[in-house]
Structures are given as C-alpha cells and as structure tokens.
Amino acid sequence: MVTNKVVLKFKDASIVKGQTNNFLPNRTFFHLQQLEGGPIEVHIEDLKAIFFVKNYEGAKDHKKTYNDKVAGGGRKIRVKFLDGETIVGYTTGYSPDRPGFYIVPSDLKGNNDRIFVVKTATEEVEML
C-alpha cells in the first residue's frame, strides 16, 4: 500500500504533518500517522485541504508563480479559500456536487505534488 507524505491544513488554521495510506476522496475520514505524535483519525469536513508534498520542509525561499503548464492535467482552475489563500492549478475531477477535488498546482517547482481541496473551505472556484 502506498504511503503519502501529507500536510493537513485545517479550517481552524492548524497544520499537522504526517503520512497516510488510507485517504480516499469519497470517504468522510482517514487515518494519519503524525510526524510528532501517534496516529489520529481525521475528518474531511474539518480540513481546508490536504497537501501531498515532496518533503516536509518545503522550499522556504521559493516564490509561487502558478504559471507552469501541467501536461495531461485537465482544465485550469483557480481556487480561493475562505482564509484568503488562492491556488491556481489543473484538475480532471472538479464537480460542484462533490465534497472535494484534486488539483495539481501550476507551480511545478513548488513542494506540492497535488492538493485535495475541501469544497466547504472554498470561497470561489473558477475554471480558467
């Protein structure tokens, strides 16, 4: 089973880093082995987004540009979150009827491989 490195951003602005191997977008919860601490059950509705990352440290000096083209990435999309953050990327699975969707950020040099966006944490979703 594949283990994913993830950074969870919650709606309350808290952040938890860890690994998961049982996240599925159609389930209401999954389990996370925290980097600091034991395993926890995470409920999707508590989250802003799940960031599937290359590493936990990130690229502190990297300036996000969101100008890269993602081959085979689907439609370009802009997501504005309720907390004011905006991410531009590509999606093949956005539907306003689903509780969430994946995007691949159009910043390929950044630390995020893909992001699962929780729809209730968004202010606006726009196809570009």
Describe the protein in words.
The chain has 128 residues and is mainly beta. It has one domain (4-53, 63-127). Helix content is 0%, strand content 49%. It has no helices and 10 strands. It has a 10-stranded antiparallel sheet with strand order 4-3-2-1-5-9-8-7-6-10, with no helix packed on it. β8 (100-105) and β9 form a beta hairpin. It starts with a strand and ends with a strand.
How would you summarize what this structure contains?
This protein is an all-beta fold.
Q: What structural keywords apply?
A:
128 residues, globular, 10-stranded antiparallel β-sheet, mainly beta
Side by side, the strands of the main sheet go: 4-3-2-1-5-9-8-7-6-10
Radius of gyration: 14 Å
So what's the oligomer here?
A: single chain
SSE string: EEEEEEEEEE
Low-confidence stretches: none
- The share of residues in helices is under 10%
Structural class: mainly beta
- General form: globular
Helix count equals 0
**Average pLDDT value?**
93
What is the total number of structural domains?
Answer: 1
In terms of DSSP E residues, the strand content is: over 45%
Major beta-sheet overview: 10 strands, antiparallel
How far from one another are the termini?
Answer: 35 Å
Beta-strand segment tally: 10
Topology:
Blueprint: E1 4-10, E2 15-20, E3 29-34, E4 39-43, E5 47-53, E6 75-81, E7 86-91, E8 100-105, E9 112-118, E10 122-127
